[in-house]
Amino acid sequence: MDYQVGVPHGFESWTDNLIDKGGLALPATHLPRMSAPCAMRHYIEGDALYADLRADIAAARIAIRAEFYIFADDEAGEPILDLLASAAARGISVWLRIDAVGSWGMLSNARLAALRSAGVELQWSRPWSWSRPWAFHRRNHRKLLVVDHTAAYLGGFNIHRDNSAAAVGPGRWRDTHLRFQGELVKDAIRHFDAYPRAPWPRVTHSGRGLVPNSNRRCRHVLRCTFANAFRAARRRIWLTTPYFVPDQRSQSALRDAAKRGLDVRLLVPGKSDVAITQWAARAAYGSLRAAGVRIWEYQSRILHAKTVLVDDDWATVGTANFDYRSFFVNDELNLFEHGPALNGQLAEQFARDLCDAAEVTDDWQRRRPWHSPFTQLVGWWARRWL
Question: Whole-angstrom distance between the N-terminal and C-terminal Cα of the chain?
Fold first, then answer.
């Protein structure tokens, strides 16, 4: 049986280059042996993640698929870009998809030319077009990298220096990412290759699956998935998000769960890189707290992790924030697991994060600056566009 190196959607012009490198069909003997189907690693430090990304890229034998919202040519991104170019130069098929807004000005013309010259096939997601001006509003917010059929990475980390302790010190951002192996890697390839569409049907492997925010049957898959999980929850819902700007239905699901007596906890940034989203989030605190939802603001650095766990056997990590843009506008991708393993890891990390957070209390509300009601109103008015 041959391993077929398909051409991702939007990269069809790359086919001739693939044929020049030896054809689209490669013998199965050229495919590295898969690791155990449940192998997964959980990252909270950018330097550790970037080190493993570099190692896997350097070891690639067939193909590398990468897409990021932000990919900067800085202390974090430069070594990875060099390795991608080197891989392409030695005959590896390298597809790189970067968001045209998130990475605006992050890569010089000289760097882009060097990547293309080395053989990297580069695609900008939804650049500005006079023929489709409103498409510019919908961003590719995914952070996915797949090496051969061996390993895939998915989560909240972009590629830039703000995530690196080596580059910025103790003020680096706090984020979450996963590296996984086994059968689910094939599904990651399906999602990359089908973009901007979603592959169908959905598949799961050992209780794990990749879920976009829209597919052929539903335009709001992630919002519906969260709402269903919250309704079915029996004991707890612990949610971490950098941008908490949910629609009314999602807020109601959290409030209803708290009213049923569940332990509903929300961890959001105390320091935000986008102030207006924090204004919008704080506008929702009152009704959530009145229903019994407990809210913490992370204090030590900027929080960018996107995780949710329900009870002891349901969890997700991915690119989606708990906001309008992720639910209704942007392209997102999350890994969901029905089982205790990922849930347990995230629960332990959530408890550690609370040690660096301050709970929102009645006293906290009284100590707000005088202008807080005004800024929160502005944020709430703008919430659908944040």
Answer: 48
Cβ-Cβ contacts under 8 Å for 231 (sequence gap 6 or more): 253, 256, 257
What is the reported pLDDT for 154? 98
Quickly state the pLDDT bin for 23 (edges 50, 70, 90).
very low
Beta bridge partners of 357: 298
Calpha distance 368→201 (Å, rounded):
49
Amino acid type, 136: F
How far is Cα 116 from Cα 109, in angstroms, rounded to an integer?
Answer: 11
pLDDT-derived band at 127, boundaries 50, 70, 90:
confident
**CA–CA separation, 85 and 335 (whole Å):** 28
Closest by Cα among 122, 97, 115, 128 to 195: 97
Order of all β-strands in the sheet with 63-68 = 40-43, 177-180, 151-155, 144-147, 63-68, 93-99, 121-125
pLDDT digits (tens, 9 = 90+) for 177-225: 999 999 999 999 999 999 998 888 888 888 999 999 987 677 799 999 9
- Segment 341-361 shows an average pLDDT of 97
Query: CB–CB of 302/269 below 8 Å?
Result: yes
**154 touches 333 (CB < 8 A):** yes
348, 216 Cβ separation under 8 angstroms: no
Instruction: Evaluate if residue 384 carries a pLDDT over 60.
Output: no
Cα 132 from Cα 117, distance rounded (Å): 30
User: What number of other Cβ atoms are within 10 A of residue 171's Cβ?
Assistant: 11
What does the buried/exposed string (b/e) look like for 216-228 if buried means 16 or more CB atoms within 10 Å of the residue's CB? eeeeebbbebbbe
The answer, yes or no, to whether residue 307 has pLDDT greater than 60, is: yes
Instruction: Name the nearest CA neighbour of 354 among 313, 307, 295, 306.
Output: 295
- Three-state secondary structure call for residue 282: helix
Per the CB < 8 A criterion, the answer to whether 184 and 308 are in contact is no
91-104: pLDDT as tens digits: 999 999 999 999 99
What one-letter code names the amino acid at 293?
Answer: V
